[in-house]
Design a protein that fits this description.
Elements lengths: L2 H29 L2 H8 L3 H8 L2 H8 L17 H15 L1 H12 L1 H21 L4 H24 L3 H5 L2 H17 L3
Helix pairs in contact: 1-2, 1-4, 2-3, 4-6, 4-7, 5-10, 6-7, 6-8, 7-8, 8-10
């Protein structure tokens, strides 16, 4: 491959990612199409598929997520589980792109890595800031993830009827104590 062709290929990839970020942000995962992303990038849709393979793979690379965890410093240690579950459920309910990332993470390693990075980069430091043993922080964050990602998968992706039927308050009441145990309880 010539240097000129490599530069064109890199420029095309960059244009696709830029167009995808803008389209996913504007339309959400479900309404964004490969055809629309290609049109935004000024290329043929086949080129998007050639470089990225699928909408899921493109989304996994294009999506940038921040849980935007609040500062829980003022929350009493024994109320941390309730506060974290409340925040997480409300965040999932207000941002469809998180469900799209979860769907993509099930089959795409790039999206799965992004999801792991969110928990490692944002939940672990929150746990450490509360004075929890650093040797246990990653394990505790992983267990918290089982609950938060599990409820998100069942409520927003698989749409399991009894979980969908629960109110936000009911979910918080059920999950809060479990997450609290994972955060501060004994094994």
């Amino acid at each position: 491959m010539t240097a000129e062709r490599t530069r064109r290929s890199d420029a095309t990839r960059a244009a696709i990612l830029t167009a995808a970020r803008e389209r996913f942000a504007r339309d959400g995962y479900d309404r964004a199409t490969i055809r629309a992303i290609a049109a935004d990038a000024g290329i043929d849709p086949a080129m998007v598929m050639r470089y990225y393979g699928s909408k899921d793979k493109l989304f996994a690379l294009a999506a940038e997520f921040d849980l935007a965890l609040p500062d829980f410093a003022e929350v009493p240690k024994d109320g941390l589980g309730h506060a974290l579950v409340t925040f997480a459920i409300q965040r999932w309910e207000s941002d469809e792109t998180l469900a799209a990332l979860l769907r993509a993470a099930v089959t795409n390693e790039g999206a799965a890595e992004k999801m792991r990075a969110i928990f490692a980069g944002q939940v672990v430091p929150m746990i450490l800031a509360r004075g929890i043993d650093p040797a246990e922080a990653a394990t505790r964050a992983g267990l918290v993830g089982t609950q938060l990602l599990g409820v998100a998968l069942c409520r927003f992706v698989l749409r399991v009827p009894p979980v969908v039927a629960m109110t936000t308050g009911e979910l918080i009441d059920w999950l809060g104590p479990t997450v609290q145990r994972y955060l501060t309880g004994e094994p």
